[in-house]
Task: inverse folding
């Protein structure tokens, strides 16, 4: 009887840290609460060069793809926020969402920012509308 109690105590002391570690990993991998910090990517265009800034580090497009994939593997599902600064082109709107989708993220938001005025506006993607010169179509 004495050995059974001792073996149960030893076994539970060995298994308890493993169960706590599994709980901790599952909290980090799934982000459905408001405590979850988003991944913020700032896009700037200086002359013809497009740079992406993430956590204070600057990346080119190919490096940004890699970083987003690494963040997805490390943190799991997180919101991704792309902030396009004033000098970017309209065609640059789709770059960060495309990279984030390729990395496996699903909650992606894009904002246009005007640093001089301090204003931002969310860019919402709607359904595709057929363009025609004929007003009846």
Result:
């Amino acid at each position: 009887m004495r050995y059974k109690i001792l073996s149960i105590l030893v076994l539970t002391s060995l298994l308890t840290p493993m169960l706590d570690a599994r709980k901790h990993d599952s909290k980090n991998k799934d982000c459905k609460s408001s405590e979850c910090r988003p991944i913020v990517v700032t896009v700037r265009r200086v002359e013809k060069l497009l740079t992406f800034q993430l956590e204070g580090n600057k990346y080119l497009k190919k490096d940004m793809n890699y970083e987003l994939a690494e963040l997805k593997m490390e943190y799991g599902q997180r919101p991704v926020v792309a902030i396009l600064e004033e000098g970017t082109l309209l065609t640059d709107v789709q770059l960060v969402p495309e990279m984030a989708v390729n990395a496996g993220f699903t909650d992606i938001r894009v904002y246009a920012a005007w640093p001089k005025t301090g204003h931002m506006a969310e860019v919402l993607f709607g359904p595709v509308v057929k363009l025609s010169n004929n007003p009846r179509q």
